[in-house]
């Protein structure tokens, strides 16, 4: 469950782990994991589909958020 907190900021409400245990990925790392361009990751962050925190002028995305996004976005193929 995600709770909105501002236009582009999201707080993970269900799985509250101590921040020192959260693994944050750069936009480039997320793009490599998802095999998409960095611009696609920026679009996901700015649209609110992928939660991120801002560090200076950069974004950091929790690794768990990437895994959840991919799990929720999976499209299964039905067989006849």
UniProtKB/TrEMBL annotation:
Residues 24-72 form the Helix-turn-helix domain. SUPFAM superfamilies: Putative DNA-binding domain (SSF46955). Pfam families: HTH_17. This is Helix-turn-helix domain-containing protein. Coiled coil: none annotated. It comes from the Bacteria. It comes from Streptomyces crystallinus.
